[in-house]
Amino acid sequence: MHSPEFAIDPHRAYFDMRQKYGSLAPVELAPGVPATLVIGYHTALRVLNDPEHFPADPRVWQKDIPADCPVLPIMEWRPSGSKSAGSAFLRYREATSASIGNVDLYGLHGIVEKFALPLIKSFCADGTADLMSQYIFPLTFEVVGAMVGCTPDIGRRVAAGMAAIFEGIEAEQGNLMVSSALQDLVALKRAEPGNDIATLLLRHPVQLDEEELIHQLVAFYGAGIELQLNLVANTLLLILTDDRFGDTVVAGSLSTRDALDEVLFNDPPLANYMITFPRQPILIDDVWLPAHQPVLISMTACNNDPAIRSEHRTGNRSHLAWGAGPHACPAQSVAYLIAQETIDQLLDVLPDLSPALPGGEPSWRPGPFHRALASLPVTFPPADPESVPTEPGTE
C-alpha cells in the first residue's frame, strides 16, 4: 500500500484483494510492517463498534517498530482520542467535541468567503491556475488557522509537517516539526487567549496538560488541513471530469453536497484508517487476526463493497468516510460546510473551469492512508478581477 502503483489505482487493488481474500486482506503499510485491511462493509461496522476487542491504543504494537519507520508518526500512540481507549478516550473526546461544537457555523461561512475572494481574484484573469497550490491549500490553511487561533508562521510549520507524515517521506522530521509548532501555539494561547479551538481546549474542565493539548491539536490539524484540502480537491476533480456532475452542479440540478457525498463514497480523503490493535488473537470472518497487529478500515473499499453498493446514491450518506462507532469524526458539519463553501465560491466566479491534467490523468500523491491529488491544473475563460467582490457579502 506504500507503492506508487497503489496510489495510481487503489480501486483495482481493492478489487483484486476482494477476489482473493474476501472481507479481510493482508497488506503491508510500509516495508516490513504487516497489517490487515478490512474491505467488507459489514465487517468494518463490527470492528468499529467493538472497541473492547478492537481498541485504538497502539503502544504494544509500536514497541517493535523502528523509530525511522515511515508510518510510525501517523500510527504511534498519542494522548488523544483517536489513539486511546476506555476512560482516556472518553476524556479526550469530551474536550475535543466541546471545542469543535463551539465553532460558529454561520460565522464560518464568512471566514471561508473572506479568504476565498482574494485568492480567486489573484488568478481569475490568467485563464489558468493550479487550484491545489493557488486556491485549495492556501484557503484551507487560512480557515483552519482562524478556527484554531493559529498564527500564519506556526500554521505553515504544522501544514508542512502534516504533509510529510501523511506521505511517509521524512515523516519522523515532519512529526517533530508539528510538535514543535503546536508547542509554540499552546504557549501563545496561554499568554494571549482568544475565541478559538486552542483556547477552548486549554480552558476545558477536563484540564488537559501541555502534552495532551498539543496532541489534541495534532489530531485536529491532521484532519483540518490535510484531509479537508483533499476532500475539496477530489470533489472539484469529480465536478470537472464526470459528466454526471460537471454540468448539473453548476446548473443546479445536483448540489455541491451531492458531489461531496459521491467523493466520500468513491475517493474519500482518508481512504484507509480507523486503525485498531486487537488485544488478543481473534477470529472474524473465518480469519484469525494476530494480537496487537494493526487492523485498519478501508473506508473506500468498504463503501464500494458489492454487498451494499447501489447504482443510485444521490442523497445517500451511509458511507464510512467519517468512520463509525465511538471514534467517528466529531467535525463532520464543520468539514462539510468548509468544503461546500470553498467549492461554491470558486464556481460562482469561474463556472466554466476545465481540467488541464498532464496526459489527461490526475497525479496522486503516494501513501497508504490518504487519497490526495498532487495538483489540480485548470483552464477557464479569464474573468475581470474587478468583478470579484473585495469584501464578503458585497457585489
Give descriptors for this structure.
395 residues; alpha+beta; Cytochrome p450; 4-stranded mixed sheet; 3-stranded antiparallel sheet; 16 helices; globular
Helix content: 40-55%
- End-to-end CA span: 48 Å
Mass-distribution shape: globular
Secondary structure tally: strands: 11
What would you call the structural class? alpha+beta
- For the largest sheet, list the strands in their spatial order: 1-2-7-4
Q: Name the CATH superfamily classification.
A: Cytochrome P450
- Rg (C-alpha, Å): 21 Å
**Number of DSSP helical runs:** 16
Low-confidence stretches: none
Number of domains: 1
Q: In percent terms, what proportion of residues is strand?
A: 5-15%
The mean pLDDT is 90
